[in-house]
Design goal:
Blueprint: H1 26-39, E1 48-49, H2 51-58, H3 62-75, E2 78-80, E3 86-88, H4 93-120, H5 129-140, H6 147-164, H7 168-177, H8 179-187, H9 197-212, H10 216-240
Antiparallel strand pairs: 1-3, 2-3
Helix pairs in contact: 1-3, 2-3, 4-6, 4-7, 4-10, 5-6, 5-9, 6-8, 9-10
Length: 244
C-alpha cells in the first residue's frame, strides 16, 4: 500500500502557531495557518489583518505574509482594504459552489486515474482496503460520533482516493482547497450533519463498489451523486447561519 498521511486539523487552542508540513513553502504554511485561524474563530468576522503584525507574530518576513494574504483574498476568505490591510469575510454561496465544483472535477479525475492504475496492474486493488477501514470507523457509532472526528474521517476518505491516483500535482491541488476546513466552517454550530450520516455511508459504499469494479462510468455517477448532495446540504447549512 502506498504511504499516505492521514489528514489532521489542529485543535482551536493550537491556533496561532505556525507549523509547516514536509515540502510545504512558507507562503503555503502561512496560508493554511491563517485559514485555520479564520475557520475556527480565532479571528472575529470583520477582524483586520495587518501584514506587519502577522509577520511579527509568526517571526517571518513580510513577503510570504503578503503572498499568503493575497492568496486568501483571491479565494474570497478575506478582503483587501486599501492602505488598511485585510479583513475577514463571511463565506458566501458562490464560494461554496465554486469550491464544490473544483472538488468534483479533481475527485472525478483522481478516481479515473486510480481505476486505470488498477487495470494496468500498477496499483493493487488491495489498496482500496483503507477506504473500507475508514468507512467502518465512520459507521461504527453514528449516534455518538463527534463533529470533528467525523469531518476528519470523511476528509481522509476523499483524500485517500486522490492520493491513490499517484498524481502528485493533483494531490497538491486537492490539498490546497482544504475541504475539511471548509466543512468545519459551513457546519460549525449546527447538528444537521448528523441526519446525513446514513446517506453519506451509502454514497461512500457506492463509490468504493465502483472502484473495485474498475467501472469509470459507475464511479462518475456515484461521485456526482455524493458531491451534488453534499453541495445542496452545504448551501442549506450556510443559509441556516443567516446573513454574514
Amino acid at each position: 500500500m502506498e504511504n499516505v498521511v492521514p489528514i489532521k486539523v489542529r485543535e482551536p487552542d493550537e491556533m496561532g502557531q505556525l507549523i509547516g508540513k514536509p515540502g510545504e513553502t512558507l507562503t503555503e504554511t502561512l496560508r493554511r495557518t491563517l485559514m485555520e485561524m479564520i475557520v475556527f474563530g480565532y479571528f472575529e468576522r470583520g477582524f483586520r489583518l495587518y501584514p506587519e503584525r502577522l509577520a511579527e507574530q509568526f517571526g517571518v518576513s513580510l513577503t510570504p505574509v503578503r503572498e499568503a494574504l493575497m492568496r486568501l483574498a483571491a479565494e474570497g476568505y478575506i478582503e483587501g482594504v486599501q492602505r488598511r490591510g485585510f479583513h475577514v469575510r463571511a463565506l458566501d454561496a458562490k464560494q461554496v459552489v465554486d469550491l464544490w465544483q473544483v472538488r468534483l472535477g479533481l475527485e472525478l479525475t483522481a478516481g479515473e486515474i486510480l481505476i486505470e492504475r488498477m487495470r494496468s496492474g500498477s496499483l493493487s486493488p488491495d489498496a482500496l482496503g483503507v477506504l473500507d477501514d475508514i468507512m467502518s470507523k465512520l459507521e461504527s457509532s453514528p449516534q455518538t460520533i463527534e463533529h470533528r472526528p467525523k469531518l476528519s474521517l470523511n476528509a481522509e476518505f476523499h483524500h485517500r482516493i486522490v492520493e491513490l491516483s499517484g498524481n502528485d500535482m493533483l494531490i497538491q491541488l486537492y490539498r490546497g482547497i482544504q475541504m475539511q476546513l471548509i466543512g468545519e466552517w459551513v457546519q460549525r454550530g449546527l447538528q444537521s450533519w448528523r441526519n446525513r450520516l446514513v446517506d453519506e455511508a451509502e454514497e461512500h459504499r457506492a463509490i468504493v463498489r465502483s472502484l473495485r469494479a474498475m467501472d469509470r462510468e459507475a464511479y462518475g455517477a456515484a461521485m456526482r451523486q455524493h458531491i451534488g448532495r453534499s453541495l445542496k446540504d452545504a448551501l442549506r447549512d450556510l443559509e441556516a447561519h443567516g446573513p454574514g
